[in-house]
Amino acid sequence: MLTGTGILLGLWLPLAAAAQDARTIHTSGVGSVAEVPDMAEVSIGATHEALTAAAALGATSEDLRAVLDVLEAAGIAPRDIATGSVTVQPVRSRGDQSQTEPPRITGFQASNTLSVRVRDIAQVGRVLDAAVQDGANTFNGLRFSFQDPEPLQDRARAAAVRDAMRRAAQLAAASGVTLGPVLKITETDGAPGPSFDMAASARMSDVPVAVGEQTIRVRVEMIFAIDD
Question: Where in the sequence does UniProt note compositional bias of the Polar residues kind (predicted)?
Fold first, then answer.
């Protein structure tokens, strides 16, 4: 049987533990590093239509072989070239205007795409121009990245921790308490993102390419103890 004292003690212990846990300061910090990318990733390919699937695929393959020769001549290593997709699909007519006649197959369309990493970013425009002139007739996108993002991530991570510690110190000073040691740090992965500073834009060879800057951001959550 619980007495009044036992009930009060049972209620006080969780409250005391909660009060002890509450003597912390929670902050977050963000660090960012902006740099000009040093690598480009390009998606190019060839698409052809023909009466038969074999003819469409053969024409596409012939163009892609020419593109591969161009990439090799430009110094692109085999490890930086990968097939993105190969597709063959029927081409259907629309039928008559009354829509009483169902669509019928009139031919086939074949597509083959390549994903190419260009590590010498100054060659991006020349590589694109040469590939289009020698067989590529589809361009599916271009994005810039970093060959080795880890040093940039390290700098952004250190800046994020400094930012969180600065915020914690400010909160402690404003509330009249003493900031204690770090109890927990949690990192949110950062990822490159485009910035609005296009100072590094340049016209490269025959195809104009604006590189710009990309920003790597890291966010951390930190918990500090409050010293007595």
Answer: 87-101
99 versus 93: the higher-pLDDT residue is: 93
Structural domain harbouring 55: 39-92+105-145
Same domain, 134 and 218: no
- pLDDT tier at 209, thresholds 50, 70, 90: confident
Task: Output Rg (C-alpha) for the chain, integer angstroms.
Answer: 30
Q: Please tell me the total number of residues recorded for the chain in this structure.
A: 228
Q: Are 88 and 53 in contact (CB under 8 A)?
A: yes
Amino acid type, 3 = T
In this structure, what token pair is assigned to residue 170? Answer: 């400010």
Query: Concatenated DSSP letters for 189-205?
Result: PP-EEE-S--TT-EEET
pTM of the prediction?
0.67
Vertex 126: Cα angle to 137 and 122 (nearest 5): 135
- How far is residue 113 CA from its own chain's centroid? 20
Cβ count within 10 A of residue 209 = 20
